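Review box. Two proteins, two foldings.
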Amino acid sequence: MNRLEQLRQFILDDPTDPFNHYALALEYAKSDVETAIAKFEELMRAHPEYLPSYYQAGNLFEAVGKRNQAIAVLQQGIALAKQQQQFKTLRELQSVLDELLYD
């Protein structure tokens, strides 16, 4: 069983765990960017409180030239990080956003 198959099985075993979906999106990012983007979008819709998604999705959007989507996702992540009082993640998201806006 390859890594993608394992991750799909984890989702079948526990579809409510956002980490399983996150790990699958990250794995797709290595070989199929469009599917990875779709998986991150699904994850952020189904589990909007799962903060790690925003950093990775923002970077992925930026990497494929979808600057506006990257900015929007990063801004959503920043708002969520403030709400969750996750200040380290807030600084990381803000740093990526600042690079996009001021680079």
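Next protein.
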Amino acid sequence: MFIYNVTTHVDWSIAEEWLKWMKDEHIPEVTATGCFETGRILRLMEVDETDGPTYAVQYSAASKADYNRYISLYAEGMRKKVFEKWGERTIAFRSLMELVY
């Protein structure tokens, strides 16, 4: 299994709305691509939240091919939607992890 992790720092001014949007719209849209089996949101703890909370959104893919399909067909469009909606009020970085044990 592969985990596509998107860690996002969210400005306090949009934190509640962003979280609701992620749960109700964005994660369902990403999983509807068929590339991921599940999506979940985790809040980072013991980090500086002066400017806002930080979340890790993790999507589970059954195979590297599923992840690659998402990156080649959908990732750019999804990132564009996020930027159009939230602009620079979020900062994200992405990583891919493989479940080992």
